[in-house]
Amino acid sequence: MVAIGSAALPLRRFESSMEDDGSYKRGRKKMGMSRKPEKQGQGRSFDAGVSKNASGRGSNRESYSAPQTVVRKQADPETAKYFSEIANLFESDGIDIEERSSLCSNALEETRGKELELATDYIISHTLQTLVEGCEVDCLCAFLRSCAKNFPLIAMDKSGSHVAESAIRALSKHLQESDVYAVIEDTLNTICKVIVKNPVDLMCDCYGSHVLRSLLSLFKGVPLDSSEFRMRKSSSALPERFNFKAPRSDADVSRHVIPGFPDLLKFLVSGMLKCARNNIKTLQVDQYSSLVLQTTLKLLAEDEEELLQIIPILIGCTREDIVEENSIETTIVRDVLGLMKETAFSHLMEVVLEVAPEVLYNGIFSKIFRNSLFDLSSHHCGNFVIQALISHTRDQDQMEMIWEELGSKFKDLLKMGRSGVIASFVAASQRLHSYEEKCCQALAAAVHSSNESSTCIVPRILFLDGYFNCEDKSNWNWPSGVKMHVMGSLILQEVFRFQIEFIQPFITSITSLTADNVLEAAKDPGGARVIEAFLSSDASAKLKRRLVMRFYAVYFPGFVDILES
Description:
The protein is mainly alpha-helical. The protein has helices at residues 22-28, 77-92, 97-109, 115-119, 122-134, 137-146, 151-155, 160-174, 181-195, 199-203, 208-220, 234-241, 250-253, 262-285, 287-299, 304-315, 319-323, 330-339, 343-355, 358-369, 373-377, 382-391, 396-406, 410-415, 419-432, 436-447, 457-462, 464-468, 486-495, 504-510, 515-523, 525-535, 541-555, 557-564, and strands spanning 43-46, 70-73. Helices cover 61% and strands 1% of the residues. It has a two-stranded antiparallel sheet with strand order 1-2. The longest helix is centred in the middle third of the chain and has 24 residues, at 262-285. The termini are far apart.
């Protein structure tokens, strides 16, 4: 066994070992989570409250009042020197693998009573991350129970949040072992009891919210680095929204790779909701609490009863107001519609519409959105909420209401750059087999007039922004070498899934492309998918062959001459 003295090697700063945990940095890069040394001083203060409001929020929104600033005492020189020695040992590879766990456990015991100042020290926190990741489960749980009363403060600190995150990840790994579930559950229960006393601080903090989301994921039993509950990227969300990927089933959501803690999840969510009732105006517009609430909703996507409790609170009304014959107060509807134009709440509302049980979705649709679809569709934040609303439309009656409000506005929306709303409606129309012909007619009319040839339809949709930004639209031509519009390409892919009788103008247009145009489209990712969609459509083999011959004409002109002779 390696013995560690209290006066061995001099204190020194980390160099390459100071890098953040990779997965954590990726998730926090845009929030300023890269760790930089703090200025030297007698002590360092850290704000246990809320970061500044995100850009795009209305200035008249209620701001969260941060609690009193807490001043952390610096670690004493002897303790700092001790943990520097530990760091040196790990860097020198002077210990065997068998000794590493015992060394981590022994060193972690030295933090007793000093967890807050050590975890929030920029240098020592790196060493603590190594210790919590390498120690035995009993020692890790003892460390967490000892610092439980200060866990929120640690989680809301720039350095401490990394220690908390590493500890949670370590617990997740230990759950694969046998006979550890009870001790881990008891430890997490102790931490939860502290958090629920004032969860708003944690929810509204840029660092604390990340730690809280990790806890929620651990309680559910899902991987901590799962993008499914860490806010999926648009690259995976768009295909699902526009029918190119099967929606997640409850079985997919509930597929766990580690044991969960359902009782703790319910306890923590309950505590958050209790607090949310009194702080809802803050939580609705705070970007970090929005992320926590989005994660919570996705984790509970299969729990209808929980969602029936949570969603009305987030909207600011009662369950009865939404699901029964009652009408929601005008002031509440107006406030919610206004909130959908806020960045944080618009993201939250998208997830609400994604996971809402049918009875809630139907009530929200008819009581909140009616007569407001075009106004929200026109807004740079609100239009994403409308996309989510349309994408989760349930029936023909809802499609009828959407068509009545947006059917005559296709051209206006495309001019404003709200093509995602159009794409969502096209996809919903195809999915529900509702308003298919009218949808195709409205889309074609939005990009060409009745006295123009239909051959221009596909090129203009492929380059939506370029076309609508052109002052002399009558003389607009295919712009060579320009990247094709992503949403325009998605719209056309969806169009070619309709029955052939509804899309004749689109077929005429794509089969009229010149050989050079076909070649450019084939080289562009979006354009290539449009061509693929047409070739997979119900169009005749003759028409498909005509398009393919355009392509061959560029590379194999002699071969085409032989075929046509």
